[in-house]
Design goal:
Structural class: alpha/beta
Distance between the termini: 60 Å
Shape: elongated
Number of strands: 15
Number of helices: 19
CATH architecture of the largest domain: 3-Layer(aba) Sandwich
């Protein structure tokens, strides 16, 4: 069997490791139980969670057992790592709703049948903690000076770090201790901004349980063009299809910079590295083939193969024909027959679809030559869209070269 550590290493998942030789030996010697924490502070997982999710999936495929730790307890505090301001405090009810969404999305990546993976909520042990006992038994093992030496806390001290956030590292370390005790978990993984929290957990397990456990962090993924990873015209790239349609998700990966294609194929697909290496040499227009493979494979993981193939077909047809194409998966807005019969100003129509966030943005798009109705370039902001523009009960709008929207006419 191929070395699990080598799989993570060659695909780009390893930034820091507490003991590379020790972890490599442990992974090669037999099944290892490991965990990644997911605090349900939002309604959906997003592109930033893809790296730990894919790392977990690769390790599971190599024979190891993942624990997806839902932070129903720690989400009530808020992790200061990687944040410039204090997180907004959520109600317990909102955290529970978010946690249920996370459970469904994580299940797309991991096989939970027959305990091949576990999903656990740390609220089970954190919510009922006795604070005095916790400070006596756990807090005494932490040095404030050492905590302040970690980069996450250094950055926050400049703008203010609340006492409640200062407790977060203790709680995350306690999670590791509990998971090691109850599930023989010996590896925690996370983003590189979690390094301080994870190594504190290692130290706590060593002090209390007398065992060696491991830490592994992955790089925080950025784009080569300097844009923030996962930012679309509409905002963050969420995994929930109600927030970002499968079509928009697919299109995001079709449009990544050429220089990022091989890196994202390595991180976000299960394709063998031998196959990916053959794609790494593609140049110019040929690299689009590799991008389509990336988009198809990742959309299949997140939204299912059938949906991914449907949006792939839609994408190809939208770039090609237009009239009569099967556009079922394309983002859609309904407009009444009466409004179209009266005539809709093209600025108003583009602003309604989400292709433009405002009428001002729609005007700029049109005057700069980036607006299309049924693949016909529109440059006059006074243009009216009416009955003559309907094709098979719909109107196809396009912004720039690659962003499409379908207007469905309803009676």
């Amino acid at each position: 069997m191929e070395s699990a550590y080598r799989i993570l290493e060659e695909r780009g998942f390893i930034q820091q490791c507490s003991n590379p030789d020790g972890l490599r030996s442990a992974l090669d010697s037999g099944p290892v139980t490991f965990y990644v924490g997911f605090d349900p502070t939002g309604t959906s997982l997003h592109v930033g969670h893809l790296v730990p999710l894919m790392a977990m999936a690769h390790l599971q495929r190599a024979g190891h057992r993942p624990i997806a730790l839902i932070g129903g307890g720690t989400a009530r505090i808020g992790d200061p790592s990687g944040k410039t301001e204090t997180r907004k405090m959520l109600t317990v009810e909102a955290i529970k709703r978010n946690a249920e969404n996370f459970r469904r999305q994580i299940s797309q990546f991991l096989d939970f049948s027959e305990d091949r993976a576990l999903m656990i909520d740390n609220a089970d042990w954190l919510a009922e903690l006795n604070y005095i006992d916790f400070l006596r038994e756990i807090g005494k093992h932490f040095s404030v000076n050492r905590m302040l030496s970690f980069e996450a806390y250094k950055q926050r001290l400049e703008k203010g770090l609340s006492f409640i956030e200062f407790n977060y590292q203790l709680l995350q370390s306690y999670d590791y201790l509990i998971l090691n005790r109850d599930y023989v978990c010996t590896l925690q993984m996370g983003g590189d901004d979690q390094w301080g929290n994870i190594v504190s957990g290692i130290e706590l397990v060593r002090r209390i349980a007398g065992k060696e456990v491991f830490a592994l962090t992955s790089p925080l993924v950025t784009r080569s063009d300097g844009k923030k990873m996962g930012k679309t015209e509409k905002g963050a790239l969420f995994l929930d299809p109600a927030l970002v349609s499968p079509y928009d998700f697919f299109q995001y990966w079709i449009n990544v910079p050429d220089n990022d294609t091989f890196k994202f194929l390595s991180l976000f697909t299960f394709l063998p590295m031998e196959e990916l290496n053959s794609l790494s040499g593609l140049k110019d227009a040929e690299v689009n083939r590799a991008k389509e493979i990336l988009a198809l494979e990742l959309t299949s993981i997140v939204h299912g193969r059938k949906t991914a193939e449907e949006v792939q077909r839609t994408s190809r047809e939208a770039f090609g024909a237009g009239d009569g194409a099967d556009l079922a998966a394309m983002p859609t807005v309904d407009v009444s027959f009466e409004k179209i019969e009266e005539g809709l100003n093209v600025v108003d129509l583009f602003a309604q679809t989400g292709l433009c966030e405002s009428k001002g943005e729609a005007r700029r798009l049109i005057t700069q030559g980036g607006a299309y109705v049924n693949n016909v370039n529109i440059r006059d902001t006074e243009t009216m869209v009416g009955m003559e523009n309907i094709r098979d009960g719909m109107i196809l709008l396009r912004a720039g070269k690659k962003r499409y929207f379908k207007v469905v006419i309803i009676k």
